[in-house]
Design a protein that fits this description.
- This protein is α/β, with parallel strands linked by helices.
- It folds into two domains: 227 residues, Type I PLP-dependent aspartate aminotransferase-like (Major domain) (Aspartate Aminotransferase, domain 2, 3-Layer(aba) Sandwich), CATH 3.40.640; 128 residues, Aspartate Aminotransferase, domain 1.
- Helices cover 46% and strands 13% of the residues.
- It contains 17 helices and 15 strands.
- The strands form four sheets. Strands 4-10-9-8-7-5-6 form a seven-stranded mixed sheet, with helices on both faces. It has a four-stranded antiparallel sheet with strand order 11-12-15-14. A two-stranded parallel ribbon has the order 1-13.
- α7 links the parallel β5 and β6.
- α4 packs antiparallel against α12.
- Bound molecules: pyridoxal-5'-phosphate.
- Pyridoxal-5'-phosphate (PLP) binds next to α6.
Length: 426
Amino acid sequence: MTVADAVHGFTETGHHWEAAQALRQADPLVADLLSAESERRADSLQLLAGENLTSPAVLAALGGPLIDKYAEGYPGHRHHTGCAPADTVELLAVDRARALFTAPHANVQPRSATSAMLAAYAALLRPGDVVLSMSLQHGGHLSAGSRANFSGRWFEFVGYGVREQDGLIDLDQVRALARTHRPKAIIAGGISHPRHLDWAGFREIADEVGAYLVASAAQTIGLVAAGAAPSPVPYADVTVAATHKLLRGPRGGLLLCTSDLADRIDRAVFPFTQGGAAMNEVAGKAVALLEAGTPEFATYIGRAVDGARSLAQSLAESGARPLTGGTDTHLVTADISAFGLSGAEAERRCAAVGLMLGKCALPFDPAPPSEASGVRLGTGASAAQGMGQAELAEVGALIGQVLEHGADARIRGRVQELARSFAGRR
Ligand SMILES: *Cc1c(COP(=O)(O)O)cnc(C)c1O
């Protein structure tokens, strides 16, 4: 492996080679740690739901000269001079986001999905307002009401959940809670629910009680880009997305909203919740949004969804219980309590053979969240590397074997073989 491979995980131009050499010379310790991370990644299968492999073109944009540019404000209205290329890049990213998602307005400046969520709240709510959201135990994100997060501290959250018998969202419950609590906003979407959401159903409830509808679509926006999931954009007042998950862009957030809310959303990002945007990330988002419109991207998303279905099926055959019986998306959430293990123990056992997945608290989980009774997996990174249904079905079977019999050298060897044969591909 070259130094450039070690640092960036892919063979790149002279620019990257020089950058890698500069790092090795200036700070061999960090250079070694990055090599170790590349090695770790090449030697294991990345199944954490929020992770992916950033596209090589996006990586190049991230390392480009806009990293040094201060450009507070918005194109044409900057607080800094010298913003001509930065302006054009941001306009390009915004136009591409609007076109890809048929959105009246886009803001590409949030540094993360959480900070995009903060801006959405800032645009729509006042502290103390009531918000109806998927409860955290049932798959809501921390930014949708956790007491450890600004959201739970500053707003009054009421949680809806899924039905115990089938794991699906019960819109009648959502409607009843909305009528009782009269929320100012309803949040739909989360981190672990594997099924498509009924956006029109949520919209109807929001309209009935005069609430804003916020789509928390960080996990699923890549599916929407490829037409593999129903789009929240025509229904939600604000759609909150991440660019680093299925979209394979830079770590960051993205906001889509109606024309009416455009100014409020923009002001809620800058200057209310952020200073200058990271213009290299904005450039990376522009590239990712271009790539997300290509046939290759649709093929990769197809692999992710088909692969997740195969993974869920083989986990079920191994004795795990996929929530809702399967998946419509790249996510699989499974109850593994039949193996007599906690989710935390399952995570440790799988990691020991290089299967990197995450423990997950389940709806109605009797175990404390630190232990949990489930695991959550995503197929974004494996699909980006070219894995398909056959490989993911095998991964499901390997997970089943580890949970049933414990880690052993044969399974570790097979995981390494699989990982190595797809490593280096992005
Ligand atoms: C990943 C995720 C987030 C947080 O994203 P960050 O960029 O890490 O802040 C928020 N909401 C949902 C639904 C997510 O899946």
